[in-house]
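S2.1 Query sequence (LysR family transcriptional regulator)
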Amino acid sequence: MSTYLPTIKQLQYLVALHESGHFGRAAEASFVSQSTLSAGIRELETLLGVTLVERSRRVVRFTPLGEQVVAKAHRLLREAEELSELVQASGKPLSGELRMSVIPTIAPFLLPKMLPRLRKERPSLKLFLREETSADAMESLQHGRADCVLLALPFPTGEIEFEHIADDRLFVAFPKDEPRDPPESIPASMIDEGHLLLLEDGHCLKEHALAACNRADLNASATMIGTSLHTLVQMVDNGLGMTMLPQMAIDAGILKGTEVIARPLKEKNASREIVLVWRKNSPRSEEFRLLAEELKAG
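Output structure tokens follow.
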């Protein structure tokens, strides 16, 4: 075995540079000066005897070998974090630092109810939250930037463990002056494909809504325009179309102050499953299951 091995700090600098593509931003994310980060990466290259990063005034480009080293560095850093988590998990549950990513169609509706109670009942827990789309959140989980993720299924997650939180029914929301007399629930056949407003690409709720409707014409004609559910509600309230909302958002009062009407979508599988997910075989699995129970209680 070589006496000279890369340090955790050097690998952290390398990963930060790869993620940001810029020495200044990588240094800021690592809470060090740019010269310190640059020197750390050069020391790593000298140690390994290879060039990992091609430097120019405008571009930071990783060599093919550099890309392979970054992939391995991600795994090593994740293992190092899990070593620390193993020790932490042996102490008091739900204490210390915990990083959780939450998707935007859950965060503003579940967290305001959950966080005050969690702070009161778990005062030793330092919960760091990051709002991300499902794809970005799962990438954060796999790369060790997040310890767990609160998201909605179905969504491709890879090798994970999860705990069910709730089933969240989908509703059709439309203007009050919609000419048709709305029934107690809305079949997908009543949705006007030319007036359906959905979230932009990257939000899994769009895919859940289209899959529940099971209409190819909606997939082709739906207007993917909204950046948030609140934006979509305001567009519907101004007569620009109709949209799909989860019950979680309606229960949280997203329609308050508007004249928007919402009715359940009358279709098979017209719901999404809210889950808490974490890396498979994580030493903190039991702690995450306990957190899931706290979320259910909220």
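The longest strand covers residues 160-175. The mean pLDDT is 84.
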